């Protein structure tokens, strides 16, 4: 009976508190259950109302009021001595706005303080306590508190269990402040109330129990943050409340997994406010804590580990209470020992429950693992030591060595051994932990953190876009890239760490540009030098490949696989170190691509790259793997295993590219009288000579006597030219010497790269150098050079011939050197040399026997095109002459190469044609030899090089030289020769059949370097006899029709290409005509010499009116007359005559526009030239009359044409009237035409008649 009455009493209290007002936090009871409770309470109240009405009148009054409405105030209902307490502030405590909650909490505490102060001043507190209890039981422990305060405390405790909006936060804030500033609230009473009001029993449902547990957690948090427990300890060091509080929180953490971390967080809040003595005597001795610590490693409790670390950090004493969590005695070395980390691995793996947030235990471990004092000191020293040659690492202090060892254990056991081998969530956690390490991580520790297994995991994830952790790995790389920003020491460490495990294929496997972007952002010379040093160490260190097996199961699962089997092979094969070395070789020159340093610093970096490539590509140590040069004061190293020939070849190619780029970007040659000019080519030749003189160093391959002799000659000539360049200062000769020197250097490397292929070209180039720049030390050559000057061609012809012979097999750096030489010598090129180059452009292979023409539409054009500008078809090289067939199986080593220039022991059987006049038999034989031999090497596989492809490639390279010639000599008469050959090649159908790219290249040069050039051929050498046939042929070409039978959208690809080619040829004819007329106009020829030009245009006009085949555009002729007025004015009468007698009505009407344009040129818009106009019109008055008579007599049928006729006639009448020629015009005009004009032209003709009478 007693228990039943107690339950009813509790129910009544809950009901009263729940309906106290709208601001009260709602209970977790469901609506139906609440309704049942209310019905039961109502029945009980009505049943006992009669007996209790006399005994408890005041209590029933309060209860009835609480059911009806919310009292506006509490204290005023009982006594006027206490301040009024507004319970409406409870509503604002649940607001989502933090500022509203804070204001409500302050208002609440302020009112409670005033009420409590007033209550404390009362002498008869029993009257207030008895009159207004407000649910406060007499045994709740809050006896010293005012009724309003007792009500507020109870309501705040219940409010923290509410899930409405932000009720927990607001009510917890109010409770925290209230406990902290109102000492009347006793700690023991508070602990008891929290347990009583938020008790969890077995009858509660899941959600209801959860709300009560969370409410207790927030209430305990409010107590911990209020500071009352610390005050209790200060006042009484034997207080039991700290132990009780800690024990309650531990018991709460044990109840549910989701309460564990926040419970520990509350304890940590308490620890921050307590002194160390209190922790040792109270917190560590709390009931349940040792047992909780003891079982932490087995169940995997990261919060227990966090609490242990935090307590030890505050107390700094060893205690057995920490059990297996912390070593005893404690030290970082023991904490991060392999055995201890293995025991903690289970705790740390279970910290993933709070993802995506990182558990608080990780920052604590990181702080212990990497102290703040480590970073700045280590990086400062490592940067200064980065430039010391061949010093692998600086000497570390014992503390740094211990930290590195601890970090190594941490990465191996926790990251690699636990997290990366587990689930996706734990892999995600591993990346998060590594990001925590980055801000504190010294650059020297990067290889430890970016371990083999980690990089392997990143590559596995990023190789598949739909993998679960793809964005996580992307974000990790982004943060890693941001971390190295503006720090080249870190940049080097990260690049090396990424590339080592992947054998240089990180970007390829991950399909990113991470390494590429990192390499493009070097900012300092020291960073570049450090990177080069690291690359050298990787290259010569044979143990760079990790010995760990590439077991995909170690770091991946079914949803994270490497993208391709090929990539797996690249990464998984440790023995294949050539992949990494290949990347090293290719990366060295690319460092300089984006580097922005001053000239001196850039040159120093170039020298280091050059030394690396030269030593590893050109030389090898005869004894051991290290050689010291006392002259250079350097030690050179090689891999213990011999470098493969493919890698040596790659080093030489990159060395050529480095020298070519240095030649392009040189800026220090303008500084005279420098002791050590920044000439990379000169430095390379000295370096090469020095190393060749060291007995223990030999070239990477043995040389034949002829090759060795050629190398020595090239070195001697380069040395001599270098001396001459320094002596002659600045100027054109210095530029020529410099260009020749670099070509000799490139040729020297090419001789080493491809044995026996360039010896002849090297000998010819040496002869040219001696002839162009004779020097005393070069005159002691063998007798092979002392030939009769009458028996050899000009030096420039030999030079051009040599350059052309080098082009087919040339690499990009070699072509750069050739173009530089040609640029500085093209002013002196002979006509024979120019024709020799143009002959290459016109050369074509014989078409196949059963070759079908490109299109039936082109049959008419091809006959004329083949004889364009009277350039006869050149002799064609038969494939049979090369000794090869189109199905040759011979393979080339270089896909860019277009065949070798090898000596041929047979003479060409084809006789030269007339277009080769000016070249002797020897020159022709040399040309035929290398043109024929460039087709020897070709492939029969799909997409491989064929003889036709090699010829096109050779033509493109020669076109580059001719473009240089046109750029350097735009005003020479030889430009006409180049133009005529280009035009002939462009209109040749075989050019379009062989390569569309070739045609586009020729057309581009014609437009850019000839038609749109600022200058053009000038001088007395430009004869009219050269220009007349060009003009005639272009006008003829412009008259040819452009045929197309199908609509543009129905054309096949081949027909569309043919249609585009026809339009290009039409554009060529028009632009050529304008360009030739500009040259003629500039020469100011007398009119007597221009008669042939006029005759050409007369023929065009005659064909225009009389032949249907002529498709010349009237707009084209109109533009000619507009640009060159003297042509239209001279042809005005002839055009009038042909227009009058034209048989075609369309052509007659179309020609009226031409006549109007000529008349405009006779009368400029500024009003000058009226006399010229009057003279011309008067002299052709009869022709004008006949034309008008013909037009009005034969009136066009179409309305549009009649409008054009009327417009022209009106224009003529206006001109005649303005020139006062109306009377002679009407007299000359036939009388029959008068009537027709008056009927068809109306008022305009009448006005003309009136004008004649004035």
From TrEMBL:
Bias type Acidic residues, positions: 884-896, 910-922
Name of this chain's protein: DNA polymerase V
SUPFAM superfamilies: ARM repeat (SSF48371)
Single annotated GO MF: DNA binding
PANTHER family (UniProt xref): MYB-BINDING PROTEIN 1A, MYB-BINDING PROTEIN 1A FAMILY MEMBER
InterPro entries found in the cross-reference section: ARM-type_fold (IPR016024), DNA_pol_V/MYBBP1A (IPR007015)
Organism: Rhamnella rubrinervis
Primary localization: nucleus
Keywords carried by this UniProt record: Nucleus
Places the protein is found: Nucleus
Region described as Disordered: 1-61, 546-569, 873-922
Family affiliation: Belongs to the MYBBP1A family.
Lineage of the species this protein comes from: Eukaryota, Viridiplantae, Streptophyta, Embryophyta, Tracheophyta
GO biological process, one term: regulation of DNA-templated transcription
GO CC terms in record: nucleolus
A Pfam family: DNA_pol_phi
């Amino acid at each position: 009976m007693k228990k039943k009455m107690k339950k009813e009493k509790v129910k009544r209290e809950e009901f009263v508190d729940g309906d106290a007002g709208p601001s009260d936090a709602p209970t977790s009871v469901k609506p139906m259950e609440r309704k049942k409770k209310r019905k039961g309470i109502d029945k009980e109240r009505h049943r006992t109302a009669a007996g209790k009405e006399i005994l408890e009148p005041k209590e029933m009054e309060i209860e009835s009021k609480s059911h009806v409405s919310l009292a506006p105030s509490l204290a005023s209902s009982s006594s006027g001595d206490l301040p009024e307490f507004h319970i409406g502030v409870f509503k604002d405590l649940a607001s989502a706005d933090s500022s509203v909650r804070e204001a409500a909490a302050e208002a609440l505490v302020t009112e409670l303080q005033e009420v409590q102060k007033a209550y404390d001043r009362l002498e008869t507190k029993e009257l207030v306590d008895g009159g207004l209890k407000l649910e406060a039981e007499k045994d709740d422990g809050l006896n010293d508190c005012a009724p309003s305060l007792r009500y507020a405390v109870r309501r705040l405790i219940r409010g923290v269990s509410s899930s409405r909006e932000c009720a927990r936060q607001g009510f917890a804030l109010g409770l925290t402040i209230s406990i902290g500033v109102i000492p009347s609230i006793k700690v023991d009473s508070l602990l008891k109330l929290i347990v009583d009001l938020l008790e969890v029993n077995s009858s509660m449902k899941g959600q209801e129990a959860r709300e009560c547990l969370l409410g207790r957690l927030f209430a305990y948090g409010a107590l911990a943050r209020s500071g009352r427990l610390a005050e209790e300890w200060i006042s009484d060091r034997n207080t039991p409340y700290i132990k009780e509080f800690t024990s309650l929180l531990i018991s709460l953490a044990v109840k549910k997994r989701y309460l564990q971390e926040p419970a520990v967080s509350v304890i940590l809040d308490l620890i921050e406010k307590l002194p160390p003595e209190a922790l040792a005597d109270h917190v560590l001795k709390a009931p349940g804590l040792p047992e909780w610590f003891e079982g932490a490693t087995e169940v995997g409790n990261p919060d227990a580990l966090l609490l242990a670390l935090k307590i030890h950090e505050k107390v700094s004493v060893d205690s057995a209470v920490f059990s297996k969590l912390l070593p005893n005695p404690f030290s970082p070395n023991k904490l991060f020992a392999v055995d201890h980390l293995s025991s903690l691995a289970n705790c740390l793996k279970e910290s993933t429950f709070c993802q995506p947030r990182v558990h608080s235990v990780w920052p604590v471990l990181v702080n212990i693992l990497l102290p703040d004092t480590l970073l700045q000191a280590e990086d400062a020293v490592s940067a200064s030591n980065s430039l010391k040659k061949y010093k692998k690492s600086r000497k570390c202090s014992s503390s740094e060595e211990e930290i590195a060892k601890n970090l190594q254990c941490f990465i191996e056991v926790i990251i690699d051994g636990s997290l990366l081998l587990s689930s996706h969530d734990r892999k995600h956690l591993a990346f998060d932990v590594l990001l925590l390490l980055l801000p504190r991580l010294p650059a020297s520790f990067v290889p430890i953190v970016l371990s083999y297994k980690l990089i392997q995991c990143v590559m596995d994830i990023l190789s598949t876009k739909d993998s679960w952790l793809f964005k996580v790995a992307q974000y990790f790389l982004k943060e890693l890239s941001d971390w190295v920003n503006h720090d080249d020491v870190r940049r080097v460490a990260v690049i090396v760490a990424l590339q080592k495990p992947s054998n240089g294929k990180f970007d390829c496997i991950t399909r990113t540009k991470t390494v590429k972007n990192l390499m493009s952002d070097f900012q300092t010379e020291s960073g570049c030098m450090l990177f080069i040093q690291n690359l050298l160490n990787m290259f010569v260190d044979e143990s760079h490949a990790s010995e760990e097996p590439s077991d995909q199961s170690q770091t991946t699962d079914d949803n994270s696989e490497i993208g391709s089997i090929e990539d797996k092979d690249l990464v998984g094969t440790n023995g294949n170190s050539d992949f990494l070395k290949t990347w090293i070789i290719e990366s060295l020159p690319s460092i300089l691509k984006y580097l922005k340093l001053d000239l001196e610093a850039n040159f120093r970096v170039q020298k280091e790259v050059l030394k690396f490539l030269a030593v590893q590509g050109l030389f090898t140590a005869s004894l051991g793997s290290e050689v010291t040069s006392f002259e250079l004061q350097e030690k050179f190293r090689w891999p213990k295993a011999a470098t493969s020939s493919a890698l040596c070849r790659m080093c030489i190619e990159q060395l050529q590219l480095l020298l070519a780029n240095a030649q392009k970007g040189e800026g220090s040659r303008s500084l005279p009288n420098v002791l050590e000019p920044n000439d990379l080519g000169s430095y390379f030749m000295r370096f090469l000579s020095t190393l060749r003189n060291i007995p223990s160093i030999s070239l990477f391959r043995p040389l034949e006597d002829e090759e060795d002799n050629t190398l020595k000659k090239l070195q001697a000539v380069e040395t001599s030219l270098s001396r001459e360049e320094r002596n002659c200062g600045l100027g054109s000769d210095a530029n020529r010497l410099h260009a020749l020197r670099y070509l000799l250097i490139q040729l020297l490397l090419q001789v080493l790269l491809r044995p026996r292929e360039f010896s002849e070209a090297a000998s010819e180039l040496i002869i040219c150098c001696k002839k162009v720049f004779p020097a005393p030390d070069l005159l002691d050559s063998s007798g092979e050079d002392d030939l009769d000057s009458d028996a050899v061609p000009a030096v420039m012809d030999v030079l051009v011939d040599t350059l052309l012979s080098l082009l087919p097999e040339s690499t990009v750096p070699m072509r750069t050197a050739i173009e530089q030489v040609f640029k500085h010598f093209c002013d002196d090129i002979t006509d024979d040399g120019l024709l020799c180059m143009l002959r290459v452009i016109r050369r074509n292979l014989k078409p196949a026997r059963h070759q079908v023409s490109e299109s039936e539409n082109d049959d008419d054009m091809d006959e004329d095109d083949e004889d364009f500008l009277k350039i006869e078809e050149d002799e064609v090289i038969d494939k049979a002459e090369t000794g090869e067939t189109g199905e040759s199986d011979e393979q080339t080593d270089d896909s860019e190469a277009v065949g070798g220039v090898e000596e041929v022991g047979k003479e060409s059987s084809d006789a030269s044609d007339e277009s080769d006049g000016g070249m002797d038999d020897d020159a022709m034989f040399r040309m035929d030899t290398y043109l024929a031999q460039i087709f020897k090497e070709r492939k029969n596989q799909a997409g491989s090089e064929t003889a036709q492809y090699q010829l096109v490639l050779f033509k493109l390279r020669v076109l580059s030289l001719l473009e240089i010639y046109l750029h350097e000599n735009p005003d020479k008469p030889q430009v006409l020769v180049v133009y005529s050959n280009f035009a002939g090649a462009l209109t040749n159908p075989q050019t379009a059949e062989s390569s569309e790219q070739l045609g586009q290249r020729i057309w581009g040069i014609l437009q850019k370097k000839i038609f749109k050039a600022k200058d053009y051929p000038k001088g007395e050498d430009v004869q009219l006899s050269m220009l007349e046939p060009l003009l005639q042929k272009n006008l003829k070409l412009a008259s040819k029709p452009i045929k197309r039978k199908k609509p543009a959208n129905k054309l096949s690809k081949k027909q569309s290409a043919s249609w585009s080619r026809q339009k290009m040829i039409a554009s060529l004819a028009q632009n050529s005509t304008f360009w030739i007329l500009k040259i003629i106009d500039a020469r100011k020829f007398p009119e007597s010499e221009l008669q042939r030009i006029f005759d050409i245009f007369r023929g065009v006009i005659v064909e225009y009116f009389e032949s249907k085949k002529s498709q010349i555009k009237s707009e084209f002729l109109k533009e000619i007359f507009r640009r060159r007025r003297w042509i239209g004015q001279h042809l005005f009468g002839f055009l009038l005559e042909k227009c009058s007698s034209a048989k075609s009505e369309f052509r007659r009407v179309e020609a009226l526009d031409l006549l109007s344009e000529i008349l405009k040129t006779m009368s400029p818009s500024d009003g000058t030239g009226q006399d010229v106009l009057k003279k011309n019109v008067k002299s052709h008055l009869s022709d004008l009359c006949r034309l008008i008579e013909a037009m009005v007599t034969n009136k066009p049928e179409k309305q549009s044409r009649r409008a054009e006729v009327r417009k022209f006639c009106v224009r003529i009448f206006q001109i005649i009237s303005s020139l006062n020629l109306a009377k002679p015009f009407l007299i000359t005009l036939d009388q029959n035409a008068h009537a027709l004009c008056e009927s068809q032209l109306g008022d305009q003709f009448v006005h003309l008649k009136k004008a004649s009478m004035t």
